[in-house]
Each structure stands twice: as structure tokens, then as C-alpha cells.
Description:
The chain has 6 helices and no strands. The longest helix has 28 residues. By secondary structure, the protein is an all-alpha fold. The termini are far apart. The protein is globular, with a radius of gyration of 16 Å. Helix content is 73%, strand content 0%.
Amino acid sequence: MQVRDTAEALFIACEMEKRAIRLYERALAVFADGPCQEAIRAILEDERRHLARFKEMGGEASDFVRAQLLAAQAAGVLFAGGLIEAQRRGAFDSVLRLYQYAAEEERDAVARYGEFASRLEGPAAAAFRQIEMEESGHLKKLNDMISALDVPLGGNSAQE
């Protein structure tokens, strides 16, 4: 993916966050009676905050055709299989599994943003580094929640 400037970097970040938001919004509707409702809501709010932050940073690209191309490319980066793939991977079986799934997607986002930053220079690289830091913070939060729910040796988690 070729990124020309900071606006495009932020546009890609916004598109990736929008995709995450759509997935979690659909999960709330589809798995209305599942064990993960509160966890899904919490992750959804984090994703909405990220989107708002990235929009504040200037994530709207002005070139419509270029923006469509970038949006299409961003769609293949995170949550590529959508809700069905998340369900297939057991993301909504338990709160622990949901956090593990979300953390895996965040790791991919951190790696992707870091890759973009390393290939760019100037303000675009700085924007992707800032986005990478935001996502790293979210990943740490998810990992902390996983640790809090993780099963001790020989035990069973109440959330599993």
C-alpha cells in the first residue's frame, strides 16, 4: 500500500477503525444473548474513541478516487473475514476468547502501522508512529484483561 502523506495515513487508520466498529456493532446484534455483551460493548467504545482520535488528527483524505482506493486496501487489513470469521474462530464463545481475538487483531494493526511508519518519512511517518502507539496502548489493555481472566494451572475460568 503506497501512502503519500499524513492525511492518507490517518484516512487508512480511520477506515480500519470503522471496520472494527462495524464488526463489533454487528456482533452485539447477532450475539444478543451471548456471554460477551459487556466485553463487546467495552471494546466497541475503545474502537470508537480511536476513530474519534484519528479523525481529530486529520484523517479525512480530500481526493475522492484516492480515498476509495485506500478504503478498499484498508478493508483487507483488519477483520478481513468479518463477523463470520470471528465467530468461526470462537471469538464470541467467552469473554476470554473475545479478548484474545481482539488482541490478535490489535497485534496485526500495530505491526501494520509500524510497517507504514518505517517506509515513510516526515509527518506521514510521525502520524503512523502516533497511531501505532495508540494501538499498542489498546493492545496492552486487552492483554491486561486477558491476564485477569486467564485460567491458573489446573483451574477453570468463570469466563470460559
